[in-house]
């Protein structure tokens, strides 16, 4: 017997067979739609949070710059505007601050005021720090910074200063003496980093210097992370000594501006290769050098850095400060001031003309 089916029977049968598959396909599409919607909502929420963080940071940046306006003057060198202070009279002493800091660090320690009572003091905000510019087009190695600062002090009529560098600033001071030895009377190097070592802080703190990604970070999350870790970081840079009361006058909010975060990240990224390059030339240094460091320094190991440098520079003196950490200009300002005085003394001895030989009459 031949079965015959109508068109309607076939359609109903086909629908009944495909209906479960259609419902499953619809369910999968619905789940994908919900997941896609959640992703979009998450991205929109994150973007909103980042925009809010950026807006708040913009306000904090403006407030910090209103609370801490430039304390000195500006000089433009090769298109770069540098902020500096120039005080006192007598032999010039040039101060170069460390990474993440500014002129205000030396101000807060009281060292600038003390030195200005005896010498002509020039302190410069290195490129990107304080109120100085840091153009992106330049790779701001210690050598590049030293060249810019050399031109700046020449424009200010400063001749053969005693160059005082702290932390990252010591590499700029060394580059200055290596490339312009005739224009440096002596060096005072405080808590410096001179030889390459493996450092965990480099990969952690360098990303804000990366274009695009770093730009987003430093305008949003980086300043807030900086505020979160600041208390522990400050204790570490002073350890094993306690945090000095003088540091309360340092404007941390200036250091948390996006522009200065970029400068600090850039210096961090350059630190190890810069030390590797400079360390090949330390034997060339031919100016009196006074090295001062705390034996308890948690940032730059005393033995691997300062003691090693003292052996590398033939005309150097090493002052070890037991129980003192990285911030020796706050923790031991008297010892730092004594080191500056000693550098002046050594420079004067080198510049003094040789005494004329005295004739001794033979006995009659």
The CATH topology is given as Rossmann fold
Q: Element order, helices and strands?
A: HEEEHHEHEHEHHHHHEHEHH
Number of strands: 8
- Our Rg estimate from Cα atoms comes to 31 Å
- Overall pLDDT metric: 89
Number of helices: 13
The share of residues in extended strands comes to 5-15%
**Overall 3D form:** elongated
Write down the CATH class.
Alpha Beta
Describe the protein in words:
With 364 residues, the chain is an alpha/beta fold. It has an eight-stranded mixed beta sheet with strand order 1-2-4-3-5-6-7-8, sandwiched between helices. α5 links the parallel β5 and β6. The longest helix has 61 residues.
Quick overview of this protein structure:
This protein has 364 residues and is of the alpha/beta class. The protein has 13 helices and eight strands. It has helices spanning 7-67, 103-109, 111-116, 142-155, 168-179, 201-205, 213-219, 221-238, 252-255, 258-279, 302-312, 328-331, 333-351, and strands spanning 73-77, 80-87, 92-96, 120-124, 162-166, 186-190, 289-294, 316-321.
């Amino acid at each position: 017997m031949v079965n015959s089916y109508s068109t309607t029977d076939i359609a109903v049968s086909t629908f009944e067979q495909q209906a479960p598959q259609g419902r499953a396909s619809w369910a999968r599409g619905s789940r994908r739609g919900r997941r896609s919607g959640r992703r979009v909502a998450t991205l929109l929420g994150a973007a909103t949070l980042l925009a809010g963080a950026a807006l708040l940071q913009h306000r904090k940046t403006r407030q910090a710059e209103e609370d801490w306006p430039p304390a000195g003057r500006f000089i433009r060198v090769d298109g770069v505007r540098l902020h500096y202070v120039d005080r006192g009279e007598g032999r010039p002493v040039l101060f170069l601050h460390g990474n993440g800091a500014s002129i205000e660090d030396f101000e807060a320690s009281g060292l600038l005021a003390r030195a200005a009572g005896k010498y002509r003091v020039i302190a410069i905000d290195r490129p990107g720090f304080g109120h100085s510019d840091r153009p992106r087009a330049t790779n701001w190695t210690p050598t590049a910074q030293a060249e810019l600062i050399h031109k700046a002090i020449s424009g200010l009529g400063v001749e053969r200063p005693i160059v005082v560098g702290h932390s990252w600033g010591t590499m700029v001071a060394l580059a200055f003496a290596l490339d312009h030895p005739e224009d440096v009377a002596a060096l005072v190097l405080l808590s410096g980093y001179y030889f390459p070592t493996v450092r965990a802080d480099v990969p952690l703190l360098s990303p804000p210097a990366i274009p695009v990604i770093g730009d987003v970070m430093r305008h949003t999350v980086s300043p807030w992370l900086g505020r979160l870790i600041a208390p522990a970081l400050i204790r570490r840079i002073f350890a094993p000594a306690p945090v000095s009361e003088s540091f309360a006058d340092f404007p941390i909010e200036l250091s948390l501006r996006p522009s200065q975060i970029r400068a600090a990240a850039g210096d961090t990224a350059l630190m190890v290769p810069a030390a590797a390059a400079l360390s090949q030339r330390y034997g060339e240094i031919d100016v009196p050098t006074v090295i001062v460091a705390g034996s308890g320094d948690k940032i730059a190991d005393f033995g691997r850095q300062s003691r090693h440098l003292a052996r590398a520079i033939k005309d150097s003196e090493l002052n070890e400060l037991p129980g003192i950490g990285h911030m020796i200009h706050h923790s031991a300002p008297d010892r730092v001031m004594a080191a500056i005085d000693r550098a002046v003394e050594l420079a004067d001895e080198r510049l003094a003309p040789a005494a004329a030989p005295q004739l001794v009459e033979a006995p009659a």
